[in-house]
Write a structure and sequence with these properties.
The structure is a homodimer. With about 190 residues, chain A is an alpha+beta fold. Chain A contains two helices and twelve strands. In chain A, a hairpin with an 8-residue loop joins strand 5 and strand 6.
Chain lengths: ~190, ~190
Amino acid sequence: MSSGFCTQCGSAVKEHIPEGDNRLRKVCSSCDFIHYENPKNVVGCLLEWQGKVLLCKRGIEPRHGYWTLPAGFMENGESTIDGAAREAYEEATAECEELRLFAVYNLPRISQVYIMFFGQLKDGFAKANEETLEVGLFNQSEIPWSELAFPVVTETLTRYYEMRDQRDRRVYCADIHSRPGAPVEIIRHPS
Amino acid sequence: MSSGFCTQCGSAVKEHIPEGDNRLRKVCSSCDFIHYENPKNVVGCLLEWQGKVLLCKRGIEPRHGYWTLPAGFMENGESTIDGAAREAYEEATAECEELRLFAVYNLPRISQVYIMFFGQLKDGFAKANEETLEVGLFNQSEIPWSELAFPVVTETLTRYYEMRDQRDRRVYCADIHSRPGAPVEIIRHPS
C-alpha cells in the first residue's frame, strides 16, 4: 500500500517511528506532520417491540441482502447513544425509546469497536430507508441465524436472548476475531 | 481552517456534501476521494490496590502537572481492554489484573469517547514512566479533587466510589459537556 500524501501540505508521507513513539506512523517528508490512524466506532442498537427484534436487510455491500441490526460509523460531534439512534432512523426509519448501553465489541483485525445499545422501538414502527432493502420484526424462533450479516450481529442477538432469559442488565464486552472462511473466535471479558 | 490536501493524490480537497450523504466531508477536487473524519477513542483504567487508587501526575500538555487516570488514544489493531492495559504500563509501569468494563463517556465537543476499565493493580507496583511526572496510590480522603486533569477523571472517580459503596457492578454511560471556564454538564444515561 502506498503511504500517500500529507493532509497539511500535499507532500509525500513516509512511514517511520517518530522520536518518543513506538509505532510506525505516516510522517510528512516535508513538514513532519504525523498522521495518526485510530480505530473507528460503529454505533448501533437492538430494538425490541412486543418481544420482537428489529432487523434490516442490507441494501449495500458488504453482505448485501443479509440481515443486520441498525448500526453505522459514529460521526464527529455526536455521542455514541445519539449515533445509535441516528442509525436506527437512517436505516429503518425507526425511533428509539429507553436506550441503554448493551455491549462493547472489539474487532481488532479491522480496527473497529462496536458500541451497541438496547431499547424499545417506538410504536413498533419501522420502514426501509436508505441502505436497507427491507425491515422486519422477528420472534426468537424466526431469527434468520444463517443469513445474519456479521459475527457481531450474531453475538449481540445471542447475548440479548441470554440477558432476556436471565432478566439480567449486565453490559457485555468481548473481542471478536473473524475473517471470511475461518471460524469465528470470541473472547468474552468479565463484566 | 484550511481544508487541506488529499491523502491519495496530494491535490487540494474541498468541503461539500457528497451525493447520498447528509454531511460536509473533505472531498478531493481531483480524484473525488472522500476523507471521513470520525471520533477517537481514549482507553484507560482505574486500578485499585488495597482500597487505594492509582493516579498519575501528567508530564505533558494539556493539563501538565494535574492528576489523571492512566488513559490514552486507542491504537489500530488492538482491543479497548488491551489498549487500557497498554496505557497503564506506558504511563505508570503498572500491570493490570481482573480488568472489566467500567464506563463509556461521550465527549461530543471534542469528538472523543472514553472507554474506561476497572481492575486491580498487580503487586501494588507503579512508577512514573514516559509522559508522567509522578504516580501515587490514594485513599478516598486523599484524592486531589481540585487538581484532577479533566472532568472525565472526576466523573470516573466519583462513580467508582459510588459503585464501591453500593457493591454495584453496573457499567456507566454518560455525555460530558465541558469547555475551559464553563460549568461542566453531565448527562447520565440509564444502565
